[in-house]
Amino acid sequence: MSPEPGDILEIWGEFSGAFFRQTALRSIEGALDSVSIVRKIIQGKLQVPEGKNFGFVDGVFVGPEMIKRWGLVLGEDLKGIAVLAPVKRDGPLKWKFVKKESH
Questions:
Q1: Nearest to 84 by CA among 103, 54, 101, 60
Q2: Is the domain of 50 the same as that of 86?
Q3: d(CA 1, CA 3)
Q4: How many CB atoms lie within 10 A of CB 44?
Q5: Are 87 and 96 within 8 A, CB to CB?
Q6: If DSSP codes are grouped into helix, strand and coil, which group holds residue 103?
Q7: Domain extent for 45
Q8: How many domains does the chain have?
Q9: 45 in the same domain as 81
Q10: Are strands 55-57 and 60-62 parallel, antiparallel or unpaired?
């Protein structure tokens, strides 16, 4: 498959050191026919369920890797970018926090 500009793709693979090795690629354009927005800016306070290492900002999933990378704490004000992405492999698309803006 040769991607065209504007295609929405799902990519599987794994990291090996600092490199990502792609193992599969498929177009998910049909899965997003009813979705017109795939990226948005969010802002709010981080909520972390008790005993969990992940959280949410206004219903947007913040993964444990993001919390650890930025040293985030419960109640912290966050502003950044969320994208539609599978939270779990082969799962449905949901909003996921991917980039923190500096204050």
A1: 60
A2: yes
A3: 6
A4: 14
A5: yes
A6: coil
A7: 35-103
A8: 2
A9: yes
A10: antiparallel
Higher-pLDDT residue of 92, 68: 68
- For the record, the structure tokens of 95 come out as 């909003």
* Residue found under tokens 């909003």: 95
Q: What is the pTM (predicted TM-score) of this model? A: 0.61
SS3 36: coil
Residues 7, 55 within the same domain: no
What are the residues facing 19 on neighbouring strands?
16
Least confident of 7-11, 36-40, 58-62, 97-101: 7-11
Spatial separation of the C-alpha atoms in residues 54 and 67, rounded to whole Å: 7
Distance CA 82, CA 95 (A): 6
CB-neighbour burial class of residue 101 (10 A; exposed 0-12, middle 13-18, buried 19+)? exposed
61 and 16 within one domain: no
pLDDT band per the 50, 70, 90 thresholds, residue 44: very high
Same domain, 18 and 61: no
